[in-house]
Every structure is written in C-alpha cells, then in structure tokens.
Amino acid sequence: MTVPWHDTNDFYWSGHVGGGTVFALEYWRSGYNYWACFVGLIVVSEWFMLMSIRDHYIIDLNTGLMFAQFLHMYGEKTCYFYDVCIVGLP
C-alpha cells in the first residue's frame, strides 16, 4: 500500500500471468488438455493486454511465469506423500 509503483521503476512479478499459468499447468498435469490449452490462450491474451496497457514490463511477466512453474513443482513435491501414500492417487 505504501510503495509508489508509478513513480519508480520497481520490479514486481505478474500475478495475472502467474495465476493463469498455475491453472494451465494443473489442468495439463491432471489430463484436462482442452482446458489447459484454453487457459494457455487466456494467459497469452493477458500477456499481450498487460504489455499493451503498459502495466508490467517483460521481466515482470517472465518472472510471473517462472514463479508459477516453481510453485507448481513445489506443490507437487509437497503433496506427493499425502496424495500417493495416504489417499492412494496415482
């Protein structure tokens, strides 16, 4: 609340692109390929929209993608024991 984003050239990752990427990765991993492609198109349109209205820089969007990939991998490793050993999911 106290950071003046428009007065300085600060770096912050894009939650729009990151959130959509997490959804696309989760759909793809769960086998819902149609929905993964659909959400992937939404992520691409968010990318171009955020660039066209000059809300984020390219590094912000790239970091959103990388952060989403990291969170998805971390979530899979964290939930592996519970999903496979306790619940019995493949």
Overview of the structural elements:
The structure is a single chain. The chain is mainly alpha-helical. Helices cover 73% and strands 0% of the residues. It contains three helices and no strands. Helix 1 runs parallel beside helix 3. It is elongated.
Task: Give a summary of the structure in a few sentences.
Helix content is 73%, strand content 0%.
Task: Please write out the topology.
Blueprint (H helix, E strand, L loop, with lengths): L14 H16 L2 H20 L5 H30 L3
Please describe the biggest sheet, giving its number of strands, its sense, and whether it closes into a barrel: none
Give the total of beta strands. 0
Task: Please state the CA-atom Rg, rounded to the nearest Å.
Answer: 16 Å
* End-to-end Cα distance: 43 Å
Q: How much of the polypeptide forms β-strand, as a percent range?
A: under 5%
Order of helices and strands: HHH
Number of DSSP helical runs = 3
Enumerate the spans where pLDDT stays under 50 for 5 or more consecutive residues.
none
**Global mean pLDDT:** 85
Helix coverage percent: over 70%
* Derived structural class: mainly alpha
Query: What characteristic shape results from the CA principal axes?
Result: elongated
Label this structure with key terms.
90 residues; mainly alpha; 3 helices; 73% helix; elongated
